[in-house]
Amino acid sequence: MRCSFIAILIVFSIILIPVIATSVDELFLTGKVIQYEPDTGKIKIEVLSSSCKGLREFLTEKGLPKELLINRVIDFGIDSDHCDKFKMHKIRTSLLK
Q1: In a domain, 8, yes or no
Q2: For residue 13, is it within any domain?
Q3: Which of 30, 67, 80, 83 has fewest C-beta within 10 Å?
């Protein structure tokens, strides 16, 4: 009985520890796309969410159709749990849904 409990605990640890170690918190925001450069993936968004309000520049996928993004209000997630105005965050979610 005790050995099976220890075995279950070990298996659970092997599965759970890598998941926790590789998890990344994302901050989800809403904003209006002002500018997008398909060659570099740089995108300027007027963020409407209070946690990151204002004009911000992010990195996203390269080669997206510019005409489908400009002036569009989008919901997106970034690679951090907070907004740092001195860092260019990467957008982790798809912009075209």
Answers
A1: no
A2: no
A3: 67
Structure token pair of residue 21: 């170690």
Task: Starting at the earlier edge strand, list the strands of the sheet with 27-37.
Answer: 54-59, 42-47, 27-37, 73-78
Backbone angles phi, psi at 45, to 5 degrees: -130, 135
Structure tokens at 76: 């997106």
What lies within 8 Å, CB to CB, of 34 at 6+ separation is: 44, 45, 46, 55, 70
* 38 located within any domain: yes
Asked if residue 54 lies in contact with residue 39, where contact means CB atoms within 8 angstroms, the answer is no
Q: What is the pTM of this model?
A: 0.74
Q: For residues 79 and 60, what is the distance between their CA atoms, to the nearest angstrom?
A: 11
Establish if 67 belongs to a structural domain.
yes
Q: How many CB atoms lie within 10 A of CB 66?
A: 13
